[in-house]
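Incident log, structure service

09:12 report received: a user says their structure output differs between two submissions of the same chain.
09:20 pulled the input from the user's history:
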Amino acid sequence: MLKKLMVLAIGLFSISLTAQKFEISGKLLDKETAEPLEAATVFAEAVSDSTLVTYTISDKDGSFKLKGITSLKELNLYVTFVGYIPYESRVSLKESRIVNLDPISLEFQVESLGDVLVKARRAPVTIKKDTLEFNAESFKTKKDATVEDLLKELPGVEVDAEGNITVNGKPVNKILVNGKTFFGGDDPTIATRNLTKEMISKIQVSDSKSDSDAFTGENSDGENKTINITIDEDKNKGIFGRVSGGGGTDDRFEYAGLVNYFDNDLQISALGGGNNINSPGFSFGEIEKMFGGGGSLMVSSSGAFSINGRNFGFGSGIINSRTGGLNFADSWGETSEISADYFYSGSNNYENTQRERQNILPDERFFTESYSRSDGNTDRHQANMKFTTKPDTTWFIDARPSFSITKAENNYESSSETYNEAGELVNQSESDNQTFSDGQTFGGNFNINKKWANGSSLSLLTEGNIEKNESESFIMTSAETFGDEGEDIFRNQVTDGNQDNVNISSSLKYRIPVLKDKLFLNAEAGYGNDSRDDKQYVYDVSGDSYLDNFNEEQSTDFENINEYYRPEFGVDWNTEKLNLGMDVGYILRELSSRDNLRNFDFSQDFDAIEFDLNMNYSLSQKTRIYASVSRNNNAPQVRQLSPYVDVSDPLNIIQGNPDLKPSNETQFYLNYNNFDFQSRSGFYAYVMYSYTNDQVVSRSTVDDNFVRTTTYDNVDGAYRGSGNISYSKEVQIDSLSSLRIGLGFYGTLLRNVNFINNEIYNSNTTALNPTLNLTYTLGDFLELRPGYTMRFNNTDFDINAIQDYEFTRHELRLRATTNWPKNLEWQNDFRYFNNPNVGEAFQKNTFLWNSTLTYSILDNKGNISLKAFDLLNQNTNTERQTSENFVEDVQSTVLQQYFMIGFSYKFNTLGKKGEVRETNFFF
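09:34 re-ran on a clean worker, output below:
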């Protein structure tokens, strides 16, 4: 073994010695007009085997610089640009490592159709209007790489441990496969962690748009991205997928399977899985993802995992989850597409939580110590369908119905004690609740669009949901207050709940061009109605009977309606580099509520102006500025308006205020985004500031026994500001090793206006979050990813009676992956958490070490893995939480140390169109 290591080290060292830096520069021009060509792709390949050496994108003046490190004496240079004949030449590096080329003139490609390059070598990166396209073959990954592994190699693309993707600092909110949604499109990791790189032809990145906006030609704000994974046409027919399973100590287990059948436009997929390690389970067999997803490694107060509303587990703490689903997508002729999916998710969970809270009053403080235990079981069935059709080039119709059924049982026990500053017990309480619930939801949306040859369009969008929830709760509560007016309160009650909600909204929008493709006028009319019937009938238990003991004081029977009308007018100005938009609307809202038990009702009208001004300016293909100013009107919740007195918690009494006014929030936003392909560096920054008039806040009074009575009021002066600066750069050290650097700094300024005991005061919070992440790669043999994150929080008050407070949290992390010897991969994940300000009863420091060994067999189709979670047996879930009137330390149940042996197998019969490759696979 030692000899093998020495030979490997000597080989790597000799390769790095012979490699030298080089630079090839030049300028690209249109042959006929001599105008510079911006955003053309320039790349260099090895002469012997066409291996990609380096690439870049031309600047707005047509200039380019190819920089890299190689031991080669000559390179093949290629230039590709949509609509032009590709250019190819041989460049010698024998005499000089710095080469200045004469201007290169590209000739217009007459045979080019649209964005199709008739004859061209596939460039690693191509820019087509608002789409960035990456050639999968040009980016080096490990042999059995997934799409997620490929995405991590693309310039400007970042993928975190949970599978969340950003492109040039912008979040990806939609993943498509061959232009179609994959399992509803809600969970991107189902596609990115299960489709393999060998299947992929290209990755396309574009600004996210709704189907309606894409059809009518409206611009995106560029704040979200869509990734389309294009499967190679030669590999678009057959079956592929994976199965996996594992078992370990402490009764830990996981199993998962995904099977896909692709036949050109037809896609059929099925998945299933389960585990009790707080993981979605679909990344089994890929080392880095073995502990990814859903927070199984995260020190968080919740262990539940869901992605865009699709739940893989419910509750928090330790979750035993189970999932299953089917997905279908197909095209009907040239004009229509249909997709449907069914998804089942269920889980059992339990969690114990300890809290120490310091409550802040203007003239004193009091302290609450509490303990709670919860466990539950939840089953949910979801079904979705999408149908789109374009009868001709002027019509687009989209329908998306959905349905869900949920059944749940939850048990909750808690106890608390409250002390004054002298350490004297002031009140205490205990509760024991058991709730059974059933819910059904049916909803969806319908969208129809018509456009005309002159560029005008008409769009109608209607959305709606019908929800019905029934529940039965058994509640035992005891509370005791001490002092001169102390009392004992005991309740043994049953609550029957019934909620019926009907929500519908619709908008009709007409868009007309004033100047073709440049100036548009928009007119829109919107309507919404949200009707909610909420019944909570409370019965006091006496002996074995309770139906005759109706408690009207604590029962509710509300009928609440939130109805609005909203006319809106707008204007858009579009050029090649500048997009300006302005929309102004007037909202007429009525909130009404009726209490059928107490025979009173109230109604409030709220009218307000809303607007949105935005600018999107592209300085070049790599640099963009986005700015916006908006104003939104938010009505109070019906519960905040209702004069009903809620005494269900005897230590926290709540009553609404029917005289509340709506709040108006004004927000300013500025974003700068830049990625330089030549230096492989990116800079992203944004700043946001918002202030709110008539913000609705809680107004509480606390008596001598620390019993809290809360209502609501309007205040002015609240604001929030935040900003982020991040910088990333990739440095090629030699021909084998590289270093990727990521720096980030996030900050928040927050002012809250508070009421306590009829005294108003401000709290000002400053939060700072610097981060540093490094990735060192040595060929395919070693990857090191150290990182540091610090969170600093400071809150001060404008009254001397309340002491300011601050706290800090540190997190250090090192992830190391080795891929040697052949077929063996060893992944280690070290984390250190430091919470220096938490109370003495809580653990301040935590070391978390996870390790996985995986050995590939069966020609890399199978993996045998041994993984160890929390090798040092120190995992804990401790954090400090704050608000405008309390500081709280929390510690709750998390996964503890376990060891697991697992096996996974990937199968793939994908072949050329019309044929299937022969292969053997098993489950």
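09:41 both user submissions now match this output. Likely a transient worker issue. Closing.
09:42 reviewer note: The first strand starts at residue 20 and ends at 30. Confidence is low (pLDDT under 50) at residues 112-120, 281-315, 913-923.
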